[in-house]
Design goal:
The structure holds 2 protein chains of 2 kinds. By secondary structure, chain A is mostly helical. Chain A is built from 19 helices and no strands. Chain B is mainly β. Classes of the chains: A mainly alpha, B mainly beta. The interface between A and B is large, with 59 and 50 residues.
Chain lengths: ~525, ~290
């Protein structure tokens, strides 16, 4: 009897403990979006400077049918029918996209970068296969969305969304067709109402521009991309925001604008950025003829350097010569007293990697399997853009400015890295054991520092009250590379300076004069 | 059962008598070169051989003859023989468990016992979970409940079988987003799958000598696989099947001192290293109260 009693006590104790601690494992997400309700519709956005389009009406959008026409009334009937039998799943799709298409695509996009940011595995003979756009589902998968690839990709997607939205704004205010929920009282507004004209649908424009661009950049993610694009259009329809022709006109416009950017992407120099054996050898020779120790891969087996000809990829609103003109002066040579003391400092930090500094290293590492440093800055920007309640077109502008600067930062940083082709700290001092993986390219200047400063520069322009936060984050991201033993202080400081230069170029020559402010 | 037998683990069928404390230290040396990337077995020149050493304090106290409290606290140190990554070290998780011998049946020449164990463990230091395979733990608070059955015959032969289910809390990374092998999350919080384990041993225990062969299986109930050439991640589906052997000897002098050595070898796994483990330790029994 007594032992039975114990069993009851113990089993109830077990159950209590399990349920107190065990029932909830739900994760708190840092980037929840609320239904978008912009403070300003930016009705003049069609007059803002274009990135690549020659004018907002470069791609024609035919005039829509009148709202009094039978054809349009049939469209309204379709919406009302859909709304009368809306499912829970459809409601979730509406809620998801109500957070703002620009922000949602940015999130989706960061997820794709993280998923495809995986270096190819070596072959049995110790060589590495190159990811092949013609065989994206193979091993290795295509792309390997490393930081330069990601920086470029983020800029293409955000720029094509941005130009497409400005074109959409042009036709919206040219034709002034109201949203279905404004035309017919029987159409419910399942998202916050605005006075933004509905034709062509901005959601459909985004779905076309983003999906076409992403399918080029991440061909193996076709299914996920296409599904999201269709969801976004359906949400616009079901929510009473857009009719079938608002959507079809938007989709066609978005796809056409993406086509312009895709044509640029196919000839922007990315295809040749991997270089070849002859180029790799020439880089080595260049470094040794300067009297420095040429970079070698610290991976086993050694991996060819990452995208050594990325410097020749077209920058945005900047020329190759302008990139070369801001190239930092040479780093100290191996064996110099200055380099020895740089190495000593790195060694100090890796020998004394405190928990606080390790947290900083890991917070900013953004290595393989992550959305990369440019993705991290999109993440940072997204929260500010959300909190500012920007219109879709202004949100798109913010991401476009940010990502143009970071793409240019990638070009300028890669230009510097491969011009000098110098060694990482661990190559010079093998006893330096790092707190995160060493990227497979030369040290000077730090990519994280360049990306971060270019981003902080643009974000400080967009959100001036937070500029000191952005600069502090950029400095922390930069120093994380020294703490982790990945970079010398000179790499970090040089990268920050270069990044601020690049960011300033976009702010001064484009953002300040684009007509949006 | 001899009063000097020192029950030391959560999975065995041995108990400390009332007001007896068995305490000591165990040293563990574990190493692997090959590992399973998902289900693909490989080695990796960027890490070489991973060695994990630990020194663990263990204490088992008999509250009554039927209820024991077992506590453990390891200090762990990891190292990679190749590549550039730093090893990690530090105090890991404090584990406290209650073992309850809820059923005893004596036959003429044998005995059958069953045990229920509730074990709680929690990190005692702020080590990072986000540096697998060099991080020293998952930085989770765990709750395990376990049932064990033990059958022994008079000649000393025994068989022991134990099954445990471990609930693990979420863990927190130092970064604001991550890809877990399947999905991308905009959060620093990682959902950790629970773990099921089975432990079976067959052995001999008599006259101060304990010898056994054992089988250990661990299955993580969820989690992603390491993708081709990817880094492992803390919430990976980490499975392993190990076989091992254990010898424990209660020294005639000094009385109450026992030495223990064991080994285990991983025969199959998923998202884990194919490790070979050696463990050695000494345990001392203190009798606060003589009940016999």
């Amino acid at each position: 009897m007594k032992s039975k009693f114990y069993i009851y006590i113990l089993s109830s104790l077990f159950l209590t403990l399990i349920c107190v601690t065990g029932c909830d494992k739900s994760i708190e997400f840092s980037e929840d979006l609320v239904p978008l309700s912009p403070g300003n519709l930016d009705s003049d956005a069609a007059s803002w400077s274009m990135i690549l389009m020659t004018s907002p009406d470069q791609i024609a959008v035919p005039a829509p049918a009148d709202v009094a026409s039978d054809a349009y009334k049939a469209e309204l009937a379709t919406i009302k029918d859909a709304q009368s039998k809306i499912t829970k799943g459809q409601q979730q799709t509406i809620d998801y996209w109500s957070g703002g298409g620009v922000l949602r695509w940015n999130q989706i996009f960061r997820g794709l970068v993280a998923k495809y940011n995986l270096p190819p595995a070596p072959r049995a003979d110790g060589t590495y296969p190159a990811p092949d756009a013609e065989n994206p589902f193979g091993d290795p998968m295509f792309p390997f969305s490393n930081p330069p690839y990601a920086a470029r990709a983020y800029s293409y997607v955000t720029n094509s969304i941005y130009d497409a939205l400005k074109a959409a704004w042009h036709f919206k205010y040219l034709y002034n067709r109201p949203a279905p929920y404004k035309v017919d009282d029987a159409v419910q507004a399942l998202v916050p109402e605005t006075d933004l004209p509905a034709y062509p649908s901005e959601d459909a424009v985004m779905s076309g521009a983003a999906a076409e661009m992403l399918k080029l950049l991440f061909p193996a993610a076709l299914e996920e991309i296409t599904k999201n694009a269709a969801d976004q259009r359906n949400a616009a329809l079901w929510s009473g925001k857009a009719s079938t022709t608002d959507i079809s006109a938007g989709l066609a416009l978005g796809k056409s604008v993406a086509g312009l950017f895709m044509a640029r992407a196919r000839t922007d120099g990315m295809g040749a950025a991997g270089g070849n054996k002859a180029i790799w050898e020439a880089l080595k020779l260049n470094a040794s003829s300067r009297g420095d120790e040429p970079w070698v891969s610290l991976e086993t087996p050694p991996r060819p350097p990452m995208l050594p000809v990325f410097n020749k990829v077209l920058p945005w609103k900047m020329t190759y010569d302008q990139i070369v003109a801001i190239r930092p002066a040479a780093p100290p040579l191996r064996g110099s007293a200055e380099m020895d003391s740089e190495c000593d400092e790195v060694k100090y930090y890796t020998d004394n990697l405190t928990r606080d500094r390790l947290a900083i290293v890991h917070k900013w590492a953004d290595g393989a399997g992550t959305y990369t440093p440019p993705g991290h800055w999109n993440d940072i920007a997204a929260e500010h853009i959300r909190d500012a309640s920007f219109s879709e077109v202004r949100a798109a502008r913010a991401f476009a400015l940010l990502n143009m600067a970071m793409h240019n930062a990638a070009v300028a940083c890669w230009d510097t890295k491969y011009f000098y082709f110098n060694a990482r700290p661990t190559q010079l001092v093998p006893a330096i054991k790092t707190g995160t993986g060493i990227p497979n390219f030369p040290a000077y200047v730090s990519g994280h520092s360049t990306f971060s400063a270019s981003a902080a520069g643009v974000l400080s322009y967009l959100f001036p009250t937070h500029s000191s936060d952005f600069e502090a984050m950029a400095t922390e991201a930069s120093m994380s590379r020294l703490y982790g033993g990945i970079h010398y202080r000179k790499d970090c400081e040089g990268g920050l300076a270069l990044g601020y230069d690049v960011g300033e170029h976009i702010v001064e020559t484009f953002a300040k004069v684009d007509g949006a402010d | 059962m001899s009063a000097s037998v020192c029950g030391q683990t959560l999975t065995d069928g041995l108990m400390m008598p009332k007001k007896n404390l068995c305490t000591g230290f165990m040293y563990t040396h574990d190493q692997w070169t090959d590992y399973w990337e998902g289900e693909l077995k490989r080695d990796n020149g960027n890490i070489g051989k991973i060695t994990t050493q630990s020194l663990m304090w263990v204490g088992n106290y008999g509250i009554t003859n039927k209820i024991n409290v077992i506590a453990m606290l390891p200090y762990i140190k990891t190292k990679a023989s190749m590549g550039t990554l730093q090893g990690m070290e530090g105090v890991q998780d404090l584990s406290v468990g209650v073992k309850y011998n809820f059923f005893r049946k004596k036959f003429e020449k044998s005995a059958f016992n069953t045990f229920a164990v509730l074990n709680f463990s929690t990190p005692l230091s702020d080590y990072t979970p986000d540096f697998v395979p060099l991080s020293i733990g998952a930085q989770t608070t765990n709750l395990t409940y376990r049932l064990t059955a033990y059958f022994k015959i008079e000649q000393g032969w025994f068989i022991n079988a134990s099954g445990g289910y471990t609930w693990r809390s979420n863990t927190t990374l130092d970064r604001p987003s991550y890809f877990d092998g399947n999905e991308f999350y905009t959060s620093d919080e990682v959902k950790m799958p629970n773990v099921f384990d089975v432990f079976v041993s067959l052995g001999y225990l008599k006259n101060g000598l304990q010898v056994e062969l054992n089988y250990i299986q661990q299955n993580t109930l969820g989690g992603g696989d390491i993708r081709r050439q990817d880094m492992p991640f803390v919430s990976n589906r980490m499975n392993a099947i190990k076989v091992g052997a254990l010898v424990m000897y209660y020294l005639p002098k000094p009385k109450h001192l026992a030495v223990r050595a064991s080994t285990a070898f991983t025969v199959d796994g998923r998202n884990m290293g194919q490790s070979t483990t050696f463990m050695g330790g000494a345990l001392y029994t203190i009798q606060f109260y003589k009940n016999q």
